[in-house]
């Protein structure tokens, strides 16, 4: 097995196998790489038959692709996950309070902890939400926290509080592993990720309008089959037992949302939307939107429908706001953040801008409003021409960029061709927030950079996924 200078999830910083991986090590001694490759092929065939695909925007071929799936799991010890869970809950709860505050009294802005213009002039800030309090006071019902480990310590790389994707792959990865390696599961005590669906159903019941709380009618609102995450939309609708709809399937009357059915209009109480704010309601946002429902925000303001996630949550996952999250956690919880941020340079600040431009070859630079690995420069892997081009972009719009050190992301053993090699990974934890409780799924989605030396794990950039095991004890 090839090695790297990064922290290995299996071997730590040395050559001894870490305790959570002892069972996997024993099992690997009994299985050939050829057999692992065969099982990998079987999983890929099953994924293709099930239609587990994604589209890459801007791909000239226009084909839907299968996210590569690696058959060697990423394993997290019970005590490691307990610490992560506590830190994630603390972080998400603080960000919920932050959203309620900036759309309400704005105490954090009055205290001067965050520049006012960074919030109020943010493209994701929705002034209409100053007039609306979401049911139960929950803004981000479904969140994703991207984390990386370096030198045996986890750091938060990114917060996703709008419409985080990937849960379908997390659930399908687990089902694939159960089919392919049932004996391996018998030798480990692994917490179930299937609890996510239960969390989601409980949350939908808890945050529905008061009149229907406990037994609401919910739908998943999708932009349609051309969306890159359409498989996930249909998958979740099926698992939740609710309808998958497009904007044309819904209408608003008397400040209530209705769904068109063969039996006539049916009242809708909860809309789990997978479309961006701007397209949600042409009367409130973009007037040219054909994806949303005219009058949706009026029904929302009247308290007759719950929108998951609430419009305007994107302020809290802006990459410039991310750099202030430790201060946000301290302000609202009174405690230091249990999970650390990656050191971040805000190019909107003169000293940080100078440092970034002077050290582009050593830094990772990101657009504050981008995702999916787009709008990013990885200095150590960039050409001189790419660095020069990025320097011009930053100078032209310094407010639009942050920079971070190039982290030595931890690695996991991964099957590539005919060998087991170490590849860099991150971990997306999925969080469900109801009116009373915030829950973290005991697992998550491990994304793996399949190219040797690559630090970009996004599927849109050639990354794959692994099943993530949280040991029960």
UniProtKB/TrEMBL annotation:
Superkingdom of this protein's organism? Bacteria
List membrane-spanning regions.
none
Annotated Pfam families: CP_ATPgrasp_2
> Taking every annotated instance into account, which residue ranges of this chain make up the domain Circularly permuted ATP-grasp type?
73-449
Annotated source species = Pacificimonas pallii
- Record protein name field: Circularly permuted type 2 ATP-grasp protein
């Amino acid at each position: 097995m090839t090695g790297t200078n990064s922290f290995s999830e299996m071997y730590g910083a040395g050559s001894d196998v870490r305790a959570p991986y002892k069972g996997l090590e024993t099992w690997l001694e009994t299985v050939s790489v050829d057999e692992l490759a065969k099982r990998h092929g079987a999983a890929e065939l099953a994924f293709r038959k099930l239609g587990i695909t994604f589209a890459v925007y801007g791909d000239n071929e226009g084909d839907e692709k299968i996210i590569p799936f690696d058959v060697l799991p990423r394993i997290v010890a019970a005590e490691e996950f307990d610490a992560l869970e506590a830190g994630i809950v603390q972080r998400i709860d603080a960000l919920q309070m932050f959203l309620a505050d900036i759309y309400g009294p704005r105490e954090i802005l009055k205290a001067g902890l965050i520049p006012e213009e960074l919030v109020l002039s943010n493209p994701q800030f929705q002034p209409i939400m100053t007039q609306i309090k979401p049911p139960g006071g929950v803004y981000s019902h479904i969140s994703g926290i991207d984390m990386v480990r370096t030198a045996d310590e986890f750091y938060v790389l990114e917060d996703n509080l709008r419409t985080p994707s990937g849960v379908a792959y997390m659930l399908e990865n687990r089902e694939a592993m159960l089919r392919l390696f049932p004996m391996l599961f018998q030798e480990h005590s692994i917490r179930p990720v299937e609890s996510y669906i239960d969390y989601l159903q409980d949350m939908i019941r808890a945050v529905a309008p008061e009149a229907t709380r406990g037994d609401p009618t919910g739908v998943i609102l999708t932009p349609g089959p051309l969306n890159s995450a359409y498989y996930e939309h249909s998958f979740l609708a099926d698992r939740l037992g609710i309808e998958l709809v497009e904007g044309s399937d819904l209408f608003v009357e008397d400040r209530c949302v209705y769904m068109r059915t063969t039996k006539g209009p049916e009242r809708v109480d909860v809309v789990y939307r997978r479309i961006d704010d701007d397209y949600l309601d042409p009367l409130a946002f973009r007037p040219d939107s054909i994806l949303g429902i005219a009058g949706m925000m009026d029904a929302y303001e009247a308290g007759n429908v719950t929108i998951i996630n609430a419009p305007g949550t994107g302020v809290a996952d802006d990459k410039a706001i991310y750099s202030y999250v430790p201060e946000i956690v301290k302000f609202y919880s009174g405690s230091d953040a249990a999970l650390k941020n990656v050191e971040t340079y805000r190019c909107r600040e003169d000293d940080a801008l100078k440092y970034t431009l002077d050290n582009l070859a050593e830094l990772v630079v990101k657009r504050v409003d981008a995702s999916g690995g787009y709008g990013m420069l990885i200095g150590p892997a960039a050409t001189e021409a790419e660095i020069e081009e990025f320097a011009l972009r930053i100078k032209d719009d310094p407010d639009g960029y942050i920079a971070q050190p190039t982290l030595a992301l931890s690695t996991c053993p991964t099957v590539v061709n005919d060998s087991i090699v170490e590849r860099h990974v991150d971990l997306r934890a999925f969080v469900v927030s109801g009116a009373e409780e915030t829950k973290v799924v005991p697992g998550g989605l491990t994304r793996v950079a399949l190219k040797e030396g690559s630090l970009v794990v996004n599927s849109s950039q050639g990354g794959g996924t692994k099943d993530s095991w949280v040991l029960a004890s």
